[in-house]
Amino acid sequence: MRPLTSSELFGVWEQTLDQPLIARTIKLLELASGEHADIASLPIGERDARMFRLREWLFGNRMFQTATCPACSEKIEWETLSGDIQIHPGTASPRIIELSRNSYEVKFRLVNSADIVNLIKNKIPPEQSANYLLQHCILEVKKSGGLISKENLPAEIAETIEEEMSVRDPQADVQLNLGCPACHHQWQTGFNIMSFFWAEINHWAQKIMQEIFVLARFFGWSEQDILAMSPRRRQLYLQMINT
């Protein structure tokens, strides 16, 4: 992977404005990872780890977050470091995982972005999404050595597979422990790096468009020339205009 230039980031932001969040993320990481990178097939946790890395390169490791207390509706704000949210498993999980329970032997893989794209494309109801993803990730099922249909897998074996997926890919489901300073209510909330990062990119793009407008109008420079400048240089020229 490599950092993106301002021009590249602005370009991928513009090109993917009307696309779903997952599609925007795949496009962003493909640009940063190289044209031969198969981002859609990466396990969710590995994809999100790349999102964290790219975000640190672009915006640093400090993250400002907000939440609303579900008990008293108090708005809470806090700042954390991206490293405090990232989960680092001891070893990388193999692409194909084998699990044996009772007389069942199952081969499966972890959920990836392509699975999520298909989930959205096929308009799978939320109550059916977990089973849909599980069925797509199970590659082979044997009972007492003979192949059987994965649809016939017992519920307790399916639950075991889902638990193993969580253990193998902890970055795919990050939970934050929050506390309200007003009413002292404690709760957990999920953290989605895709949503967080793209909200920052959207804010950055709106800000950079304003800067381009002002600098182009005042100096007559092209958008390409302005985007090629460092953020520090753009700010210096903007200060000159405002003095």
Written description of the protein model:
The model has no long low-confidence stretch (mean pLDDT 92). Helix 1 (6-15) runs antiparallel to helix 2 and helix 7 packs across helix 9 (231-242). The strands form three sheets. This protein has a four-stranded antiparallel beta sheet with strand order 3-4-5-6. It has a two-stranded antiparallel sheet with strand order 1-2. The two termini are 40 Å apart. It contains nine helices and eight strands. It is an alpha+beta fold. The chain has helices spanning 6-15, 21-33, 44-59, 113-121, 126-137, 155-168, 193-219, 223-228, 231-242; strands at 62-68, 75-81, 97-101, 104-108, 138-143, 146-147, 174-179, 186-191.
